[in-house]
Amino acid sequence: MADIRIRLGVHNLDASQVTAFRESYRQMMQINDNRGYQVLAGRHGVPDWYCWHHQQNARVAQNMRLFLPWHRAYLYNWEMAMRDRV
Questions:
Q1: H/E element, 29
Q2: How far apart are CA 72 and CA 78, in angstroms?
Q3: Are 39 and 33 in contact (CB under 8 A)?
Q4: Which residue, 24, 25, 36, 78, could crosslink 82 as a Cys pair with Cβ 3.0–4.6 Å?
Q5: φ, ψ for residue 61 (rounded to 5)?
């Protein structure tokens, strides 16, 4: 069974954790393949904001039901990519 990880709020990070957080972002921004910042950010729509929940019909009930689970999965993948960097 995997250990439970507790994700601290940014206001609870000490100086070394903030440094590690920034370093993982810096490393991700230097990767030019599908593991890098640009691809991960692009899944959310950057730079053109072409994400399904930013479209005109985002207020449709079906899209709103998917908003939170989609972001939960997105942030999980983002976190795993950052953990791979440090």
A1: helix 15-29
A2: 10
A3: yes
A4: 24
A5: -55, -40
Structure-token pair, residue 49 = 């904001």
pLDDT, one tens digit per residue, over 9-65 is 889 999 999 999 899 999 999 998 888 888 888 887 766 666 656 555 555 556 667
The pair phi, psi for residue 2, each rounded to 5°, is: -75, 150
Whether 28 and 85 have beta carbons less than 8 Å apart is answered as yes
CA–CA dist 33, 52 (Å, integer):
23
State the Cα–Cα distance between residues 14 and 39, nearest whole angstrom.
Answer: 29
Angle in degrees, 0-180, between the axes of helices 61-85 and 37-44, rounded to the nearest 10? 170
Tokens of 14: 């000490």
